[in-house]
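Request: How about a record?
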Amino acid sequence: MRNTMRKRLRSEQGFTLIELVVVMLILIILTAIVVPSYLGFRERANKSAAGADVRSAVASVEAWHSDHGTYSGMTVAALRASYDLSLSASVISLGTLSTTTYCVMAKSPNDSTKTAAKAGPDAPIVIGATCP
């Protein structure tokens, strides 16, 4: 019984160098496919977050206009206090305000280079735009 065990242990061999290289190449190829895909997903998520934050802020901005008849004098702090705007002041900012127009901008909380803005009541939300 001991002889058969010894023979079996002596006859077992490890992986060849070619097998190890093939496995490494497969891992490198999979990594090259997955990493760019993940980075693209993260960028799209940050842009979407900025757009969603602008949409959330617009409701508070329009409520301010309904109550005051103007967009002038509006601040992020006043919106947060009076209209339950739950976004932080570092994410939302206001640009030029007048009696009939406004500009509200949001930065993604995860990537401050990803922004979205809406410049007025009838304007669309533009991803990548900033307020003047």
About this structure: The chain has a mean pLDDT of 84.
